[in-house]
Every structure is written in structure tokens, then in C-alpha cells.
Write a structure and sequence with these properties.
By secondary structure, the chain is α+β, with helices and mostly antiparallel strands. Helix content is 24%, strand content 29%. It has one domain: Alpha-Beta Plaits.
Length: 126
């Protein structure tokens, strides 16, 4: 009687990690701003000018300006930086310093920020 021989199986390779499992280096910052009611339009103009310059910085992946529905005096700046040092470099630019000084008297309260770590999309997706 012939003996059947099963060919050996190739070694198993571990499944690739999903994109969200990659250690994130991208830093996301949400800056919360409350502006005095009579300065909303001037704040928007100054902030849009700053954002337009900011997205040209090599360390900035994204710089969004959003305004709260129902309360036009509240904004969130969504800043996405390519590395942890990029925010400090951003704060040294002429356009940031100009913006900071221009909007300071427009604030109803001091700005606050929250630092977040990117989870998805993968850093390369920014």
C-alpha cells in the first residue's frame, strides 16, 4: 500500500499591522478661542491670513479654522504638525507673531489648547 506524504506547509508570516497600529508621530492641536462679539470678522480675517501662511511651513500638515454653530464668537483652530518640534518652529514665524499680537485684544478669554496623538489615518496620510 502506498504511503501518502503531505508536503510541508510554508512557515506562517505574521499578518501586517493595520495602519492605525503604527506609532504616530503626527501631533494634532485643537486651539479653542473665544472672541469678543464685535471682533469676530477681524479675528476671522487675521486667522485666515495666518492659516494661509502656516500651511506653507514644512512642519505643518494641516491648519483648519472652524467656527462654532450657534455661537459665532467661538472658534477651534485644528493644527496638524508633522513632528513634535513643529509647533515651536511655527510659533517663531513672523506670521504667527503678527497674528498673536493682532488678535490678543480680540479675545474674550485666554486661548486654550488640547494636544492629541494621531490614530487614523496613518501619519503618511497627512
Amino acid at each position: 500500500m502506498p504511503v501518502s506524504v503531505t508536503p510541508p506547509r510554508p512557515p506562517r508570516r505574521p499578518a501586517p499591522a493595520p495602519p492605525f497600529a503604527i506609532l504616530a508621530a503626527v501631533l494634532v492641536v485643537h486651539v479653542h478661542v473665544h472672541v469678543l462679539p464685535d471682533h469676530v470678522e477681524a479675528f476671522k480675517a487675521a486667522t485666515i491670513a495666518n492659516a494661509g501662511e502656516s500651511v506653507r511651513e514644512p512642519g505643518v500638515a494641516r491648519f483648519d479654522v472652524v467656527q462654532q454653530d450657534g455661537d459665532p464668537t467661538r472658534f477651534v483652530l485644528v493644527e496638524v504638525y508633522r513632528d513634535a518640534e513643529a509647533p515651536a518652529r511655527h510659533k517663531e514665524t513672523a506670521h504667527y507673531l503678527r497674528w498673536r499680537d493682532a488678535v490678543a485684544p480680540m479675545m474674550a478669554s485666554p486661548r486654550t489648547s488640547v494636544k492629541l496623538t494621531n490614530v487614523f489615518p496613518a501619519d503618511a496620510g497627512w
